[in-house]
């Protein structure tokens, strides 16, 4: 079985986000970028499945400008066998990503498609659900445990829901999106970083895949959230009720 993993290049989680002076978006020039943390978890899970003998190949795919290849190289250094880069001039909205992924799935025919549950730049949490709908495949989102049964061609997925854990049995092929507790992603070792330089990366344009990239969204302005005012410590519940009633007017 082949596993396809979607990995996105995002501003590193440790970077303090800065808004561009013209308020058109977030500053990404001269900013440390890395693989979206949930995508690292997705790739780690695919590599673990391959190492347990249940998959033969792990293919990492990314969509975006040419520097997204760095993220693919990181994925190849972690252990992916090959990469696919779909070059797009700007960031794609989840529906466009899902449409491109659908075409890649038709070309590659994977038995399992693993994504992060969300990208930490836009926090959309949409792409996994959209690609599952476009393909008509079963989906296990927010996975905290994945067990594959090769004989029965089934994936058992524990998923984190509001009330606790839910367990789903998915017929393969299926889409899985990863939550934080699924695994601890590995670091790429220096020899593997060197090896990754010679692993193949196939390039496509959206036109070659026959996907029209468009967005129904227009960014009007990006601004910082308002600064929080200092809190006050109240001496009694009566005082709290008084403030909620007469100052905040919420009760
Ligand atoms: P989102 O729906 O934007 O929060 O993203 C959820 C997941 O979709 C990410 O963790 C990735 O696995 C995948 N994804 C989103 N955008 C891209 C992209 N441009 N390239 C590759 N994978 C992506």
From TrEMBL:
Broad class of where this protein is predominantly found: mitochondrion
Listed InterPro entries: ET-Flavoprotein_bsu_CS (IPR000049), ETF_a/b_N (IPR014730), ETF_b (IPR012255), ETF_beta_N (IPR033948), Rossmann-like_a/b/a_fold (IPR014729)
Name of the protein this chain belongs to: Electron transfer flavoprotein subunit beta
GO cellular component terms attached to this protein's record: mitochondrial matrix; mitochondrion
Similarity annotation: Belongs to the ETF beta-subunit/FixA family.
Protein's job: The electron transfer flavoprotein serves as a specific electron acceptor for several dehydrogenases, including five acyl-CoA dehydrogenases, glutaryl-CoA and sarcosine dehydrogenase. It transfers the electrons to the main mitochondrial respiratory chain via ETF-ubiquinone oxidoreductase (ETF dehydrogenase).
Localization in the cell: Mitochondrion matrix
Sorted UniProt keywords: Electron transport, Mitochondrion, Transport
Any single Pfam family the record assigns to this protein: ETF
Record GO biological process: amino acid catabolic process; fatty acid beta-oxidation using acyl-CoA dehydrogenase
Gene name tied to this protein: LOC107891898
Taxonomic superkingdom: Eukaryota
Gene Ontology MF annotations: electron transfer activity
């Amino acid at each position: 079985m082949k596993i396809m993993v979607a990995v996105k290049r995002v501003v590193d989680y440790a970077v303090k986000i800065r808004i561009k002076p013209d308020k058109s978006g977030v500053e990404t020039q001269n900013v440390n970028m890395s693989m979206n943390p949930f995508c690292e978890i997705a790739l780690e899970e695919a590599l673990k499945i391959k190492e347990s003998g249940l998959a033969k190949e792990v293919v990492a795919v990314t969509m975006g400008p040419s520097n997204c290849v760095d993220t693919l190289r990181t994925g190849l250094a972690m252990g992916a066998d090959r990469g696919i880069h779909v070059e797009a001039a700007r960031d794609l909205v989840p529906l466009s990503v899902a449409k491109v992924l659908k075409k890649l799935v038709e070309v590659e025919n994977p038995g399992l498609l693993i994504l992060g549950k969300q990208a930490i730049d836009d926090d959309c949490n949409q792409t996994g659900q959209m690609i599952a709908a476009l393909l008509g495949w079963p989906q296990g989102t927010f996975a905290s445990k994945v067990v594959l049964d090769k004989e029965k061609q089934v994936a058992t997925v524990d998923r984190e829901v509001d009330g606790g854990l839910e367990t789903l049995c998915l017929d393969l092929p299926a889409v899985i999106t990863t939550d934080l507790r699924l695994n601890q992603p590995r670091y790429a070792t220096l020899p593997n970083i060197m090896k990754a330089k010679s692993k193949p990366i196939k390039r496509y344009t959206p036109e070659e895949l026959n996907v029209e990239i468009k967005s129904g969204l227009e960014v009007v302005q990006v601004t910082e959230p308002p600064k929080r005012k200092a809190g006050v410590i109240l001496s009694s519940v009566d005082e709290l009720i008084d403030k909620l009633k007469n100052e905040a007017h919420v009760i």
